[in-house]
Amino acid sequence: MLKSFSFFCAFVLYCSSVFAQQINIIPQPLSVTEKTGNFTITSSTRLVVKDKKDNATASFLNAYLLEHYGFKLIQVTTDAAKSITISSGQQGEGLKASGYQLQSGMDGVHIKGNSAVGSFYGMQTLIQLLPTEKSTALIIPALLVEDQPRFAYRGAMLDVGRHFFPISFVKKYIDYLALHKINYFHWHLTEDQGWRIEIKKYPNLTKVGSRRNGTLIGRYPGKGNDNTMDEGFYTQEQIKEIVKYATERFITVIPEIEMPGHSGAAIAAYPLLSCFPEKNTDIPATMISEKSKLELASGRVKLVQETWGVHTDVFAPTEYTFKFLEDVLDEVIALFPSKYIHIGGDECPKDAWKKSEFCQQLIKYKGLKDEHGLQSYFIQRMEQYINKKGRTLIGWDEILEGGLAPNAIVMSWRGEAGGIAAAKENHKVIMTPGSHVYLDNAQTKNRDSVTIGGFLPIEKVYSYEPVPKELNEQQAAFVLGAQGNLWTEYVANPSKAEYQLFPRLSALSEVLWSSKENKNWPAFQVKMISQYNRYKIWGANYFEEKK
Ligand code: ACM
User: Fold this and answer.
1) What CATH number is given to the structural domain containing 87?
2) Is the CB of residue 347 below 6 angstroms from any atom belonging to ligand 1?
3) Atom of ligand 1 nearest to the CA of 487
4) Residue 401, ligand 1, Cβ within 6 A
5) Residue range(s) defining the domain that contains residue 159
6) Of 118, 202, 335, 544, whose Cβ has the fewest other Cβ atoms within 10 Å?
7) Do residues 225 and 333 share a domain?
C-alpha cells in the first residue's frame, strides 16, 4: 500500500513537472535544469540583438511569433530589462560551435550561442518552450539548457523529380527542417520523370524534360495513365532564392543531379545522351498516356517517363555525355555554395551498356573489369571534375561497386552494409537506410493511402542508431550522421508530403541531435503530445496513430 502510494506521488510529481512547466523540447537537449519561476513574453518584451550575425535568428523568431501568436517583438541593440537577449560567440566550456546555452527566468531569456548557428538553435529551443495555444502572454518556464548536436550531418531529402513541388512548399519544408535543428536539405532535382533545374546552356532540359504527358494511376503496376500533364521546374533565380532562404536558417542545400541512371528526362531532352538514341523510351502499353502514344506514332523517340521503377535507358559514358554533365555541373556549382554535390549513382541497370558496342570497347580500352568497372570509371571522372572545382562528391551506395572514387562520401540506403564498408575504407558516410528513414513508407499496416509499400512507424524511426555496432571507434568517426528521405512517386502534393513527414521528422531530429544517453522513447511520447499541438498551430498535415 505504502509502495503504491509513493509511486502515485512520484507519478503526480512527474506529471506536474511535465505538464505544468511544459518542458517538452524536441529534440531533447544535452542538459535541462529546471529553475523556479517563469517568464512571460508579450508584445512589450524587447528582443536584444547586438551583433548583426544574429539578425536572421531574430527575424525567424519574430516571424514565428507573428504568424502563430499575432504579435512580434521590437528589436533593439542595447540591453533592456526583462527582455529576450540573443548573442553568440561566447564559447561555452567544451561545447561545439553549434552549441548554445539558454537561460530563462524572472528577468528574461538569454540565448548565448557558441556561434551564430548555436544561437539559432537556442532560439529553436525557445520556440519549443512556447505554449501551443494562441495567446498574447506567452509563459515559459525558468530553465537552464545547455546543448549541442550529436551529429554534424543532420539531413532530410525531398524528391521533386517524381512530383514537382512549388517554391512556396520548398520554403515550408526548409522551415520544418529548421524547426527540428536539421542542417542539410538534400534536393533531389532530376529523375526519369522530371528535370527540375534550369540549365541555361541546355534549355531543352526544362523545355522538354520538366514536362510529362501523364502519370501512372495508383500503385505500380497501377490502373492506367491519368493523361494529365505534370510539369514544373525552378529557374536559376528561384534556386538562388531557396539557397538564401536556407542559409538564413543555417541549412545547407545539397543539389542532386542523377547519373548515370535515373536520367530519362535528360535523355528525352537530349537523346544523344543515351546509348541508343534511336530507340523508343520503354513505357508499357498499359501505362503510357494517350498523348505520348500519338507523339510516338508521329516520330517522337524519347519520352519523359510516366511510370515508376528502375529504367534501363541511362547515360552513355561518351565524351558528349561527360561534356554535357560538366557543363551542367558548372551551372549547378555556381548556384549552390554547398561543399557537397550529390551525383546519385544508384540503380543504374547495365542492360544498355552490355548491348552497346561503344561501351564494350570502352571497357576493353580502359582495361576495366566489366560494366560495374565502367560505372566506377564514370563516377571517378565526375569526382575528379567536382574535386577540381573544390567540392566533394556524394553518391548513393552503388558508387562502391567496381571501386570507390577516392574522396567520395557514401550515402548508405540499401541497409547499412554500404556505409559500413565505406567507413572501413576510411570514407565519410551518411546513413539513410530504407529500413528506418525512408519517409515514403506507410505509417499504418493497412496503408491508409497509396504509398511505395513498407511499414515504418515513428517508433522504428526513433529506434534508429546511425553508428553501426560493426564499426570500431576510429571507423565510427567516419559516420557524419543520417538523413530521412522523402521520395515522391506516391506523394503528389504538399499536404501528402507533410503527412509522410510528420510525426516521423520529430523522431528523426532526436536520432540526429540528442545524445544516445538522452534518447528515451516513453519520455519522447509524452513530449509528442505538445508536438502534435505544434503541428496544429503550424497548420501542417500529419499522421497520428489511433489509440
Ligand atoms: C534510392 O532509394 N534509390 C537511393
Assistant:
1) 3.30.379.10
2) yes
3) 2
4) no
5) 153-517
6) 544
7) yes
